[in-house]
Design brief:
Belongs to the ABC-3 integral membrane protein family. With about 300 residues, this protein is mainly alpha-helical. The chain is built from 15 helices and no strands. Helices cover about 80% and strands about 0% of the residues.
Length: about 300
Amino acid sequence: MLNSLLSPNTQWVLLSTLILGMAAGMIGSLAYWKKQSLMSDALSHAALPGVVVAFALTGTKNLLIMIIGAAVSALIGAWLIGWIRSSSRIKEDTAMGMILSVFFGLGIMLLTIVNRTAGGNQSGLDNFIFGQAASMVRKDVFTMLALALLVIAIVTVAFKEWKLFLFDPDFARGLGLSSRWMNAVYMAVLVLVIVIGIQAVGVILMAAMLIIPAVSARYWTQSFRTMVVLSAIFGGGSGLIGTLISTLGKGWPTGPFIVLASSVLFTVSLVFGSEKGLLIQALQLRSEKKKQVQDSNSSWTKVPVIREGE
């Protein structure tokens, strides 16, 4: 078992999920402040039909080709969400739920058809449901690692632009920063981090890798920069720990273990977080009540005593 954990391929897989978790955490922070956390869930489910169609057209399990297929499918889903919202009275969250359900149902139907064809049941496409990082070969690992590093670079280099785009769009437009282009780049990096992570985490649980680290980081800081850094640390740590645990068993899916690791970090943040953590809130409430009691007693002792004859 130890030799398996220390094998070169396993080490590369662990490194790739570490970097993937960092990229997902950083993009998750952008989605959190843009109030589009549900968008990541919708697009991860919308990517499944593209994966299956890419395999059906090529007949080979090439991760890069499948990523392209997943990206096309996810972008179509994003466009349909925007179209439904702009051309009808349906709200954005409702449109996301519709696209999520329809595309995921279509993906499962196509997956069932492909698995019944000759050689389809040996394709390993089922791993895209819950994720299976251990099944990745060296070429897949390098592809995912390179694209995840690209996402991190985009967020890091243009950090000031992202901050203006999220918190002061009017000032950003005054500086000549196009909101249309920023929205396009945001959607592109969101889709990219989703499609490169679905083999490791799965289409069902990929959204958790984007949402949970960002929410956990929010309990520790009020600073956007610090939140992005903490979210990257939480996401990377969850990816590393979850993948490491999944390698201990034969055929254990990676996604659930990564989500469980993220949930543990979220629970710790929820209880002990320095910003609105339950423990801090309880201590502050206790301190306020104690202060109120002291102020009440102090005011009572200062009440003037009226003596007889005065």
